[in-house]
Write a structure and sequence with these properties.
This protein is an alpha+beta fold. The chain folds into two domains: 1-31; 47-155, NADH Oxidase (3-Layer(aba) Sandwich), CATH 3.40.109.10. The chain is built from four helices and four strands; from the N terminus they run ααββαββα. It has helices at residues 3-23, 47-57, 96-115, 151-155; strands at 68-74, 77-82, 118-124, 133-141. Strands 1-2-4-3 form a four-stranded antiparallel β-sheet, with helices on one face. Helix 2 (47-57) runs antiparallel to helix 3.
Length: 160
């Protein structure tokens, strides 16, 4: 057997062994420990709410941390919060970038809501970058709202 054939057979065997051991390993690496799989209670988002929140979640965020959370109050009424577990104290000690990321989320939320004919009523709750609750949002179905091409949100790519 020549050297090239030996290396290719050995590489294939190692790859197969690694793949099999990974597949039979503990499945904890397939789930996020910080993600709650279902909202508390029996919250059932309306189809428009799901679409709006999905598009809002495509907002860019510092180091792709997505440092926001949504507290469901009632249909089309939420509180947007500052998720402290997503803070990056080493690169953003004052949470300036975190607040900018939440602002991008809120802007996407407004674009998505407008596209579906909802007006956003924002109430700012936070007074510092470290506050947990940042904004309260109420969506009201309204006519005469200028739509936004949400395909621009879907197709947006951030290159760092």
């Amino acid at each position: 057997m020549n050297r090239k054939k030996f290396i290719s057979i050995t590489g294939a065997a190692v790859g197969i062994a690694a793949g099999i051991s990974y597949l039979v390993s503990d499945r904890h690496n397939f789930t996020r420990s910080d993600f709650k799989s279902a909202p508390p209670g029996n919250i059932s988002f309306k189809p428009d709410e799901k679409e709006i929140l999905f598009l809002a979640s495509l907002a860019p965020s510092g180091h792709n941390t997505q440092p926001w959370f949504i507290k469901y109050i009632e249909p089309y009424h939420w509180v947007i919060g500052n998720e402290k577990t997503k803070w990056l104290p080493g690169v953003d000690p004052t949470q300036r970038e975190t607040i900018l990321s939440i602002g991008a989320f809120l802007q996407n939320l407004e674009y998505a809501a407008n596209n579906l004919g909802y007006k956003c009523d924002f109430t700012i709750l936070g007074t510092t970058n470290q506050d947990e609750h940042i904004a309260e949002i109420k969506l009201v179905k309204s006519s005469g709202i200028t739509g936004f091409d949400v395909e621009q949100i879907r197709l947006r790519r951030t290159v760092l």
